[in-house]
Specification:
By secondary structure, this protein is mainly alpha-helical. The protein contains nine helices and no strands. The chain starts with 8 loop residues before the first helix and ends with a helix.
């Protein structure tokens, strides 16, 4: 079945991210899923109908992701994130495998809908990998996010700090790591400063 991105991926993705271009029947199915979100089987049946109608539409992928995530089904949520990465990569002309994406800043991280969608999905993928105990996958996804979004427009640096803190706790590298920050350290740093704080935490973890 044709998808919303088949005809002109670059032109159509902005509208798709913003919820436009969704067939009426799929929109109705998503609405039904939302109304019955407390009834997981019924909500999932509605989401499956939406998926059959518009499998690659970001609104459908986001709804599926949320359904699994808030139902604490983290592995299926990560599988949806993988699909969303493929859709977003195709629209941006990036390699399908995120590990093959060139590690350089992506223009548009502040205001371009399709770029931000890709970055947020990759961040979600990293978060789920961390929650699932897939440390290497989380680490590598966050390393790429740092290269793609050095100004930290999507807040991935905070997740990297959480990952590094978790490593400290597991290794017991610093008994008071959670209680005391280093002198001059700002746990609320934003943008490039947040990535710099992650660097300091990495240094502490390796000390």
């Amino acid at each position: 079945m044709p998808t919303v991105l088949d005809a002109d991926p670059q032109a159509g993705f902005d509208d798709a991210v913003l919820g436009r271009g969704l067939p009426a029947e799929a929109e109705a199915a998503l609405r039904e899923a939302g109304l019955h979100r407390s009834d997981a089987p019924r909500a999932m049946a509605a989401l499956m109908r939406a998926q059959r109608l518009a499998a690659d539409h970001p609104a459908v992928l986001i709804a599926l992701y949320r359904h699994h995530f808030y139902g604490h089904r983290l592995a299926p949520a990560r599988a949806v994130a993988r699909r969303a990465l493929l859709v977003a990569a195709r629209a941006l002309g990036l390699p399908a495998n995120w590990r093959h994406v060139p590690p350089r800043p992506l223009a548009g991280a502040q205001g371009d809908a399709q770029v931000r969608f890709y970055l947020f999905v990759l961040k979600g993928y990293a978060y789920l990998s961390l929650r699932l105990g897939d440390e290497a996958e989380a680490r590598d996804a966050l390393a790429l996010l740092r290269m793609l979004d050095p100004a930290d427009r999507v807040g991935a640096a905070l997740l990297e700090q959480v990952r590094l803190r978790h490593r400290q706790d597991e290794a017991e590298a610093q008994d008071e790591a959670e209680a005391d920050d280093a002198p001059g350290d700002d746990p609320h740093a934003l943008g490039a400063a947040a990535w710099a704080r992650a660097d300091r935490l990495a240094g502490q973890a390796l000390a």
